[in-house]
Amino acid sequence: MASFKVYILKRLIQIPIIVFAVVLIMFIITRSAPGDPVLYWLGPNADEQMVAAMRIRLGLDRPLYEQFIHYVSLLIQGDFGTSVGLMSGFPVINLIMERLPRTFLLMGTAEILIIVIGVVLGVISSRKPFGKMDMLATASALITYSMPVFWLGIMLMLVFSLYLGIFPSSGISTYGLTGFASIIDVLWHLALPALTIALGYTALYFRLTRTSMLEVLEQDYVRTARAKGLGENTVFYKHALRNAMLPIVTQIGTDLGVLVSGAVLTETVFAWPGIGKLAFDAMIQRDYPVIYGVFFITTISVVLVTFATDIILAYIDPRIRYR
Amino acid sequence: MILSIAFLPSAFITPANSSHETPVYGGRVIVARYEDTMTINPILAPGITSLETTGLIFDGLMRLDTQGLPKPALATAYTVSSDGKTYTFNLLRNVTFHDGVNFTAADVKFTFDQAVFNKSVSFIYRSYYQPLESVIAVDDYTVEFHLKNASGPFISWMNLPILPKHIYNAGGNPDLNKDPHNFNPIGTGPFKFHEYVKDDHLTLKAYENCWHGRPYLDEVVFRVIPDPGTMAIALERGEIDFARDISFSDTVRLALDSSAGKNNITVLIGPPNYIIGVRACFQSSYFNKTNPNSLKIRQAIGYAIDREGISRSVYYGLATTAHSPLPTAYPFWNNEIMASGSFTYNATKANEILDEIYPKGSDGFRFELELAGATADRDYLELVKVQLERVGIKIHLSVTEKSAYWAHILGPYELGTWTWVAVPDPGWVQNSWASWTTSAYTIAAFGRANDTGSYLSSGPATEIDTLLMQAEVETNATRRQELYYRFQEIVGFEDPAPIFTNFKPWPHAYRNDLRGIEPVSMMLYETCLSNSLAHVWRVPTASTGTQEPFPTTLVVATAAVIAAIVIATFIILKRKGTKKI
């Protein structure tokens, strides 16, 4: 058990180092891109005095290393700064926290759909590899995976919204609804964007499950289980699927970490006001504090979820902690 | 198809109101825009989206009508002193802000003092008011504006929305940049602020005691739909009533469907809103003043660009050809330039000019130029490249997103695209000889006065310099028009720096049951929306338009089908699994 504690301690020490490295890299990359928020808002022919005043107000007149130190010192105090979107002055943390629930709702629903559809299809396919069902599922998954997400979104919107009129085309809610009706309404609005992301990424889980299942089904213990006369369902779901789930669980862990980053294209197409769109707009406008804030939250989320996944795996499988 | 599209624009423009219809009160209009408002303070508002929002909540002393001409708003009348340096405005009485407090001259003085004279306030259009020296509240309903010099366009700038002093000066010494009312505003306009959810919606309610009467609508909701395709679909479905930012392709599609009776949408093209062109940088070796061939190259480019081809291929036939930076719909537009046929597409003439100075090499090209631009103009850039290469100018395209492009053109470049915003008075952007600033045509086109490579250099004054300076201080409208006519002749043909190619309109589309929408080009505080919504109304017999009811039957049926598929799958799996091996 002592070794397990040492393992946890080592991983804990790694976290701030990884986060600092990401913040540094993010800062360098962001600032290497041409343009800045002053140029974006005032244009290339703006009055020099106004440009200078705005640069001072936003702290962009200071040397880059000073800006970095200033930003890190703010971060340590839990201050993400304020948006430099000209006059907005919104605290970055507020902008992110407003959008996080919406992004979690969209990405979480999509992730559940991806896992359920992907794993079910993967299991079905692995029961009879290269059979009709497998070929059909493989072809469907690869077709949707190959489609650009924004195109898929627009097609779903055209069919299910414009032509069939089943779902709303965009937005997160119908204006003016309250109470239970508003909850149903949000789910109604959620359907198409969640399905768009799900269809786009189901192939990943489908292929992973199928490959993992086929690999496990070749194992000796599966043959033994069948030789014992166990029913195919028992062999499949109790013996094979449980073991085949390990890489899937690892993948789920990774995906959960990046849930907070949102889905830029889907959010844009469906006018879903989430983190992805916020990050995209911030990048276009060179709104540095917002870019840093979104990256930072995403990094923390990925690092913590990965940490938790590793701890769970290490707890389950002692071989991991001794490596 | 091309022919039918070419004839579309005139068919799109529909009368705003049928004269026999009687306006009725009530209803809600949902407007979609591609971006959210940045602030709801008109002084801080950086762009058209924010400005048109504040245009519904606030009023200025004057307002610009659909022709861009100033009309009284909060001011009943004004007089100008004989030297043109003092404007005296008489204000409306019994005007109240949304909180019930009376509007007075103190509010006018406060607003201008903050916007123009308080340099810490981020008012990006401050330079427009550069001639202004002081504002004096003579009494509660009289205000004097003292100018440093006479100014032709000054009266057009008097549409600056007026802030209530008692709100924004609460506690004294305000920092307008961070005032909490920037997202909870109080004004005198037809609509009052109700609710704001950033990046989702903004709701305004009718102001019952508005000085020019209650608006017909009860409520206006602004929604943010970033994708233009989605916006068009939302309009077709009736989820929104008014789409402000649909694409040219959707404009044509919606209009054709409308003509065929397939939708309940009216498409409004409106007057030209943007002017796009190719701008030559005077810092490049081909265009600097020491190169004797600079003018001929620019003129050859003017002939080589097929403006009608661009309109057809890039803008679905909705753009028109441009030779001037001034919009056609306004009084300063010089129609004689068009009449003279200058720079009509003539590749032969372009080749003749270039043959004299740069004969073609063995590869068919004379010389190479970089053509830079932003991603939004990619199609335009591609076509211009093809057209210039036809006359032997090898083009290297450099297409980047807006911020990177702007950073790029801060340094020397050769050719770059530029979009000029069509504002009604050239003086709006050519306001001060000493302080060239945020621009539309003049500065963007010619650079700042002290730029080494600038068209308007600090050297001996050119004719353009003189014309612009004279026009700035000229108050006689006819004389100003003459000066700007000559200005257009020079920049449009004789000595083009930017080669203006097309006027682009700003298409709007709305549900057929809306009445009272007026086409108007962009003019900062006045847009099609802000000018129209105060008197837009819905035909009561039509459906309320927006927000189709929840389609319970369809959704339940779909859910049932999905559930049946899932259950069937599990049953099949179960049956297969029971077989013993």
What characteristics describe this protein?
heterodimer, A: 323 residues, mainly alpha, 14 helices, B: 581 residues, alpha+beta, seven-stranded mixed beta sheet, six-stranded mixed beta sheet, 18 helices, disordered N terminus
Summary of the model, kept short:
The complex is a heterodimer of chains A (323) and B (581). Chain A is built from 14 helices and no strands.
Tell me the Rg of chain A in angstroms: 24 Å
Low-confidence stretches of chain A: none
Structural class of chain B: alpha+beta
Q: The biggest beta sheet of chain A, please?
A: none
Strands of the widest sheet of chain B, in order across it, are: 8-9-10-1-11-19-12
Principal-axes shape call of chain A: globular
Sheet with the most strands of chain B? 7 strands, mixed
Distance N to C terminus of chain A: 15 Å
Q: Helix tally of chain B?
A: 18
Average pLDDT level of chain B: 81
Detail the poorly predicted runs of chain B. 1-17, 431-460
N to C succession of SSEs of chain A: HHHHHHHHHHHHHH
Assembly type of the chains comes to heterodimer
Strand content of chain B: 15-25%
- The proportion of strand residues of chain A reads under 5%
Query: From the alpha-carbon coordinates, what is the Rg of chain B to the nearest angstrom?
Result: 27 Å
Strand tally of chain B is: 21
* Category by helix and strand content of chain A: mainly alpha
Tell me, rounded to a whole number, the average pLDDT of chain A. 84
